[in-house]
Amino acid sequence: MRKLFTILLTSVISGNICADSLSSATSSWMTSLKGETKICRLTIPGTHDTGATSGGFAAKCQTASIKEQLESGIRFLDIRLQASSGKLELCHGIIGMGTYFQEDVIDHCKEFLDENPGETIIMSIKHDNGSEADYLSLLQVSLTTEENQNYLLKSLRPTTTLDDARGKIVCLHRNKPTWNYYGGAFNGFSDNTTFSNSINSYYGVTTSFKAQDFYNISKGFGKGVDYDGKFSAVTSLFNESYSDESNSWYFNFTSATALVNLAGPETIAEEIGPRVSEWLSDKGKGYYGVVVMDFANSEKTSGPEMTGFLIDCNKNYSDAVINNIETPLTDNFEILIEDNTVKVNGSSQIPEVYTLLGKRVSGKLTSGVYIVKVGSKAVKIKI
Question: What 8-state DSSP symbol labels residue 370?
Fold first, then answer.
């Protein structure tokens, strides 16, 4: 069956549609995105145990400071805390980091948002050690000061947009929240598995989510590390999020450990990270939710490469095309679809077809707006 679509070219740009030249600077990559985009539909690079920058092979999960992580494009922070001498100290389990919630997390986030008001920061907050009562008391004081509340999103909803959250920190409480919490609170976070649940808000609105955090990947003492099982858990959830067009939020942890096998977070990140990065590149750009990494700034884990890819998954290519017009065209442009193959009339090259969010399309095109890349040129078309 042959179908011929006649389409008016609106603009053309040079270069690869997915090239770095179409990406915003990593410190402000959200700023150029459409404000009506729901934050639960953004693909967001994040860090596991964001503040665990010391503690040896068993506890250390990052090398970059929070400021450096934010500047590199990270927008999900996994903050784990304990009450220590009247302050909230960052920790990884029983190991304290000697850094603190207000000075080393909140203040840096506020400074970053002042410099980049078009951005938002998703912050998971978890009590990880010590007295829960002391933790909640200190957290209550911190998050209810007027100075801090000016930077907090008041209430999370499934329809919360990027414009709603710009210049704000979206707090997500992993365990018991403060009594009048801002943001949202996970209604349970299952251990060492893939699961579905909801995020509650203080005002009674819930947002559904699905998470994968299979973090203990030891097969047992002397029996090896289940790298393949971890990789399968990560990519299975990627496949699910890729095809999900609902308002469910996805959280996918690439991080893991197997301490009885002497495989700490860094060892596993250097094994899993490059495999995941290659898989994503082969799968192509789409919706992957929040992707949480260890050693996200290390080349050995493919962290910077993965972060760049995840950022580019959000690019609205219609804006990219319009803002980078080189030669506007007015001639008609014909696309022939025959046997699920898209061809450009008068060209021997097979075009690549993408949705406006960069998802590769194959087969029959339905009505809509697409980006068609032919050789070194890319055009926006409407069918």
Answer: E
